[in-house]
Amino acid sequence: MPYAAVVGGPRTASLVPVPAAPLGDGDVRVAVTGCGVCGSNLPVWEGRPWFAYPLAPGAPGHEGWGVVAEVGPGAALSVGDPVAFLGENAFATEVVVPAASCVVLPRDLGHFPGEAAGCAFNVAARAGFAPGQTVAVVGAGFLGAVVVALAAQAGARVVAVSRRPFALDVAKTMGATEVLPIDGDVVGAVGDITGGDLCDVVVEAVGTQAPLDLAAALTRVGGRLVIAGFHQDGRRTIDLGMWNWRGYDVVNAHERDPAVSLAGIRAAADAVAAGALDLAPLLTHTYPLDRLGDAMEAMVERPDGFLKAVVLA
Ligand SMILES: [Zn+2]
Asked: What is the CA radius of gyration of the chain?
């Protein structure tokens, strides 16, 4: 019998048996290995007036990976294929998804929350990192840490900014050349580092007002401000006078085209398989599926040493 975690209300999750979903044309049944807990899961976990509960079984797990267990008619995958998949209900022991929403993974990839890793690759693609740039990454959680690595690999000088010393240590191991605590005079420090010009590219990877303001302030005239945090939780204000005067490009780096998301997952899987990127130090906490609530609370609290949780089915 399959099981799924059900978020029955704010800060409440339980594991319940669910009926096995039928396989349609082109579908596969995936035995889920695990699913990442995403920062974007937090508003629905903590509760906001606009959400309705209970959520669908397995929601809001959208960073799942596993192994194909059954293949529907016309699905171009094989039983036993390791896959990461796009789907919103992956806090479960199994899911039924279109084969077209799966990326076949190299074997022995380790824990691989594909959508999260792919998201970072697509942010990097939209950021257009290049050799010689000075890049600041504001927020060094999982997304920020992978973006730091990709900017450094592209030949940029990377400044990581975070409120947490642990996250800054991780950013250093991922290739940041400078790390700055967010509560200091970051603009002054970056001005010193860049000789006053500020950054060619700044990636905001938090999703709240103050880091957005900081990222905007760090972007040089004619540079590029890349908004990668999830600003789903209420409105933001911006200093449009400054944004406008500096004449920089502003990129909202979320992909809504599933084909692009899948390409990002594929690129991330290839990088991990090639040894160019190690996700293991970033996946700091693992929980069994029946402790989804604890995984969510860890994401809320971010204790020292926490970067990202994965829930294992
Ligand atoms: Zn996510």
From this structure: 20
Residue 284 Cα, ligand 1 centroid: separation in angstroms? 16
Rounded Cα distance between 35 and 88, Å, is: 10
Give the distance (Å) from ligand 1 centre to CA of residue 304: 21
pLDDT tens-digit series, residues 121-160: 999 999 999 999 999 999 999 999 999 999 999 999 999 9
Please list all protein residues whose beta carbon sits less than 5 angstroms from ligand 1, which is an ion. Answer: 38, 116
pTM of the model: 0.96
Quote the ligand 1 centre to 195 CA distance (angstroms).
36
Return d(Cα 146, Cα 162) in angstroms, integer: 14
